[in-house]
């Protein structure tokens, strides 16, 4: 390894890290860049949340890192798995990584399963590829996996097809397939978005359980900060193809240091009446081929000033292990601290909602 | 399952009834009607009266049709006006020849069509894909009879490798001779069918390749080769089955013309001969046989589809 | 890094029609011109000159001569007329029968739909060349018979397309609005719906023209189409096939003109349907119906 990875000097390399990673899509003669130089690290056993509105590049980043987007997606930068760069991997080596070292689950589980193959066959395929199991041994292991992901009546389910199972069950099957290769990390791309709220909570609980048992790392991609807060140790907020803020979960929720993150937090629906001021972020994510100059968030930002349009803000320290990419970071931090002090004793819109697990449970109950 | 097959059969009955009625009614188009057909145009009134009674033409129309139908169901279409042989016998002699041609053509169509479809789908948008699209447009657009003539010119007239007129030699008696006779017609018909096959299979493959489960397979670490050959192909074959009926129709039409090009003694040429000599019982027999074969294949394909696709409930 | 660097915008330009489309249009113009002005041209497709029989292409006979010494090029030009007239007549018949069937079946639904579509199923029960042959067996061999036979074989595709279009249009607001005014069903069908489905029907006209030309030629090739001595492409291929050793050009050249005509119609039809629905890959709906030699 030529460059030491930030934050890991001297120690073992992080499990997974992206360094100045970009993704562009070939379009006609030109290319449209959708992810602009991202740096992220995931330590062994860590749970990292990636949050942002749809179109911010959060899924594309991870799919492209594992080369799952086909030839139209062109990437630069490095994707390191245990310090080895995936971009140098052959298709064969990469196939061993996918499903073997890194398991993936996606948004719409029913359409993610092959409609004409039995569930057992699809789990068996992963077992054969990554553990060399076939026949009876594979069937036994598949049964154990289905059992592990909480599917009752596993022997019968093995012989069924995806359309005979509910969406929640299919997501459990997807998790079983991902677990089949005993991966070091699970990348979950909006795993609960297509599911009912009660099922959502069950799937999240399942992922939490599995992580507790196996110590598997997690990259949870979601537009829902609530879901991420529930499971993740650390959060990276993405906007328009860049990481705009990253911090430990409690830190990020307690003292957000980027106007966009504050907007996302404020936009979270509350079930407890009008106690929380709702200041949703107006406007929409700029399209990749019509990016504003300077800070991409500036046109929607309540705090933007003229100089925000000059040059793209870089991530800078905003606390311990806390980074934020805002050109007005210093000024705003002061302003927010004064505001917090004023509202202390009364009601603070952000701090009040820090009781995340509790809050989420209420949401589930009401759903 | 049985219920599903019975229901599909029941749907076919009205079509079969109307079609068979239309086919039966053809005999009234002969100059002099069915009687003239029997006794010739210069018959005496006594002969005509006798023939009328013999043919049952003095009975009501529905009874006449019903009589014909009951005979037809048992495979009795009467005698050829020309050779005076039973129609069933004539058809029975020609059917194996056509089936043999069908076998070779289907083989050619599969051997050419499937690789073309897969290559086009895998390399979608590339120059290879465009080349193969052009090839398909030619396979579909060039009339079989002209293609057949070109093949004869090349392989029989110029190179003198193969006979220009094909005989029917049963494959199991003399495979060598049989194949020599079948290569050119088989290629002519097979190329045409391969065009349809490749076009639809490719479309089907391309749309399946975009499906979410393909990404899952990749994320599982399945190799690209297996993804195409196993996951995508199996799913793509399903919608493809639904156009098999259409292919069979094309195939039968193409077979009639191909047999004419290579003077191959199959069912198609028998029908052409029957039409040019206005041999109505023979025409009726040929058309009914083709109709039944076509419908039977469509039915089998439907049932197959229901059996293969786990999502279809046929109860 | 500046933003501009990351964004390489592309300019949208209206795409030129592909080269194949332009060539096809040019070729068809020549064929149609020949067919229309065949009488005016200084050529005679029937003039026999036995001494000059089966002569290869030359300055005086560009396509050579046939077994009776007739000029093959003259016969190809007059054959274009036979072919195009038969095809045009057939397409008109197919549209006149098929479109109303599709309109009524789609508009009313219910038992009318069932009965009409069963009738269409019967027509589809035979591959279209066999249907045409069966009709000719009944009608006797003549140009009119060929025209009717090919036309009837084209009825199902018009009926199906019209029906499918009506089914989608029927739900739309402007149709319900017209119905709300108390207009009669036939007024709605022919004055409101029909004008709105003309473009897909026009594509079908082109597609079916190609099918009709092919079918007419196939019937003539089988010896059941337009009877001689009327020049027809299929008939020329049929006779030319007997002289493959002596005069290969006899079958090759008329076949080439026939093939190019068919491919041109296909190309234009594909381009039209692509213009109509950019999402479709240009696969014409008629291709599904295309059953023939």
From TrEMBL, chain A:
Membrane-topology descriptor: Peripheral membrane protein
Subcellular location: Cell inner membrane
Top-rank lineage group of the source organism: Bacteria
ABC transporter domain sequence ranges: 16-265
Regions that span the bilayer: none
Entry-linked Gene3D superfamilies: P-loop containing nucleotide triphosphate hydrolases
Assigned GO CC terms: plasma membrane
Family annotation (Pfam families): ABC_tran, oligo_HPY
Region entry Disordered, spans: 343-367
GO molecular function, one term: ATP binding
GO biological process: peptide transport; transmembrane transport
Stated family: Belongs to the ABC transporter superfamily.
Name this protein carries in UniProt: Peptide/nickel transport system ATP-binding protein
Organism lineage: Bacteria, Pseudomonadati, Pseudomonadota, Alphaproteobacteria, Hyphomicrobiales
From TrEMBL, chain B:
Keywords for the protein's UniProt record, in alphabetical order: Cell membrane, Membrane, Transmembrane, Transmembrane helix, Transport
Main location: membrane
Single Gene Ontology BP annotation: transmembrane transport
Pfam families named among the record's database cross-references: BPD_transp_1 (PF00528), BPD_transp_1_N (PF19300)
Residues of the ABC transmembrane type-1 domain: 95-305
InterPro entries from the UniProt entry: BPD_transp_1_N, MetI-like, MetI-like_sf
SUPFAM superfamilies in UniProt: MetI-like (SSF161098)
Record's subcellular location: Cell membrane
Membrane topology: Multi-pass membrane protein
GO cellular component: plasma membrane
This protein's record includes keyword Transmembrane helix: yes
Transmembrane domains' residue ranges: 12-30, 99-122, 134-157, 177-201, 236-262, 282-308
PANTHER family membership: DIPEPTIDE TRANSPORT SYSTEM PERMEASE PROTEIN DPPB-RELATED
Family: Belongs to the binding-protein-dependent transport system permease family.
Name of the protein in question: Peptide/nickel transport system permease protein
Organism from which the protein derives: Chelatococcus asaccharovorans
From TrEMBL, chain C:
Protein name listed in UniProt: Peptide/nickel transport system permease protein
Coiled coil: none
Domain ABC transmembrane type-1: 80-269
Source species of the chain: Chelatococcus asaccharovorans
Compartments (UniProt record): Cell membrane
GO BP annotations listed: transmembrane transport
GO cellular component, one term: plasma membrane
Keyword Cell membrane: yes
Transmembrane stretches, start-end: 21-41, 84-108, 120-139, 145-162, 201-227, 247-265
Family: Belongs to the binding-protein-dependent transport system permease family.
